[in-house]
Every structure is written in C-alpha cells, then in structure tokens.
Prior knowledge:
It contains three helices and ten strands, in the order H-E-E-E-E-E-E-H-H-E-E-E-E. A hairpin with a 2-residue loop joins strand 9 and strand 10 (134-137). Strands 1, 2, 5, 8, 9 and 10 form a six-stranded mixed sheet that branches. The longest helix has 9 residues, at 87-95. It is of the alpha+beta class and 141 residues long.
Amino acid sequence: MSSETAARTSVSTHILDTSVGRPAEGVALTLSVRSGSDGAWAAHGASTTDADGRCKDLPALPEGTTHVRLDFAVEAYFVSHQHRVDHKATQQAEEQQDAPRVRDSGAFFPEVAITFAVMPGEHYHVPLLLNPFGYSVYRGS
C-alpha cells in the first residue's frame, strides 16, 4: 500500500445527546490504532467535539492500520450538563422500582470505547448516539 492510499484512510465521528436531542459539545476523545488483532494499541490523535458534536481534526490513519479505537470521555460531559436534566422526569423515573436511587456521577457509563476494523483507502464515519444510561454506534456515511 502506498502512503498516498494510507492518507485517504480516515475516521470521523460525531455525538448526538439523545436525552436532549442535541449535539454533544465539548466531549474529549482519543483515537488509537493498531496493526493486526494482536498488535499493541498506539495513541494516534485526540480531539474535542465542537458545537455541532463533531471532530473535524482527526488525523489520517497510518499505513498498516487494521483496527481503530475511539475512546470518548463522556462522564465530564454529563456532569457539566446535569443542569439540563428535566427534574420532573428524573423524579418520575426514581419512583419506579428499578430506577437508580442515587447516581454517583452524571453518567452510568463514564467512558465509551468503540473498536472497529478498517480497510486501506476507505473513510469511516462512526456516530455515537448517547444518553446518560446507554449508547449506540453505527457505521455512517
């Protein structure tokens, strides 16, 4: 594979906070790469989501990359946005038998790590749909 092909292998992401129906601004993330399923992870980049919940400055992947890991630091985001929580909805949820009675932080998942395989020369857009008690990811376009 030539370095020209490797330069075109890229990753982008964005985060939507489904609990408020808005982009998640200010979430820090790191991008790590490895070659082969048993290779060591190497930090390759870091970013923070912008007002649209996007990271536009992630570097192209190095030649030989077969796997990518995105680590999203979501706990700080939820702690800083707790004032947006609908307190009536929270009270109703807490009245349910299986609802959490006490939350130690603003998120059940303090971090989200997404690992996926890549092929040379392709672009991978991996959106994260996020709320305080769950998340979902998919390969976007």
